[in-house]
Amino acid sequence: MSFDALEKFEKELALFTGAPYAIMTDCCTHAIELCLRYDGIETCEFTPYTYLSIPMTMHKLGISYTYLEESEQTWIGEYQFVGTRIWDSARRLEPNMYRAGSIQCLSFGYGKPLQVGRGGAILLDDIFAYQYIKMMRYDGRDLSIKPWEEQKWFYVGYHYRPTIEEAESASKKLAIYTVDPLTPTPVPYPDCRKITIVGDIDG
Questions:
Q1: Spatial CA neighbour of 141 closest among 75, 100, 131, 29
Q2: Rounded CA gap, 22 and 32, in Å?
Q3: Residue 23, domain member (yes or no)
Q4: Strand pairing partners for 179?
Q5: What is the DSSP-derived secondary structure letter of residue 109?
Q6: To 5 degrees, how large is the angle CA 23–CA 26–CA 28?
Q7: Per residue in 15-72, pLDDT tens?
Q8: 34, 21, 2: which is closest to 98 by C-alpha?
């Protein structure tokens, strides 16, 4: 399997957003998870108005979190995990949107600016994080080593890579992508303070 299409899209996305580096993943939630793991986040705070997978990820990783005291959804396009350099930028995609020193996680799911169906990405300027997370997203594999069986050592990785078809589709759509001229408005998310996550089902 050739990963040329994946590397091509990552370079195009980095150029479009102004980020030094971009890493495509299979979804935004997994992009966020990889960044939380890499930075060793133990505590953070974020908006309660977000998708269910975010507090689920915090529980899975054992991260202690609190919700910001918000009476309504106030963020548009992205929000920060306060106390970290990580942003959930799932609903943003604009030229030169990259914020220096940060890690911004994008989504290409349905209803997102670049709608592929599935997929996500990480924008960053940290070369060490880039090199490590790039391997983490695909079972610890260094994609410059072919065939993979010739790789002799691996970081612990996760099967969070996108398909080549998703990368090709994203590349084609990015080439003709234009920012919606309408003023962005908040997308209604449920208040996660109203739900309880009880943990894994005992076997």
A1: 131
A2: 13
A3: yes
A4: none
A5: B
A6: 75
A7: 999 999 999 999 999 999 999 999 999 999 999 999 999 999 999 999 999 999 999 9
A8: 21
Q: Which two tokens stand for residue 162?
A: 């996108």
* Omega prior to 147 cis, within 30 of 0: yes
| Non-local CB neighbours of 128 within 8 Å, separated by 6+ positions | none
Which CATH number fits the domain that encloses residue 169?
3.40.640.10
Residue 145, burial from CB neighbour count under 10 angstroms (0-12, 13-18, 19+): exposed
- Rounded-to-integer distance, Cα 96 and Cα 45, Å: 26
Identify whether 117 is part of a domain: yes
Q: How far apart are CA 88 and CA 94, in angstroms?
A: 14
pTM for the whole structure: 0.94
Supply the range of the domain harboring residue 147: 4-194
Q: Residue 63 domain-assigned?
A: yes
At 87 the three-state DSSP class reads strand
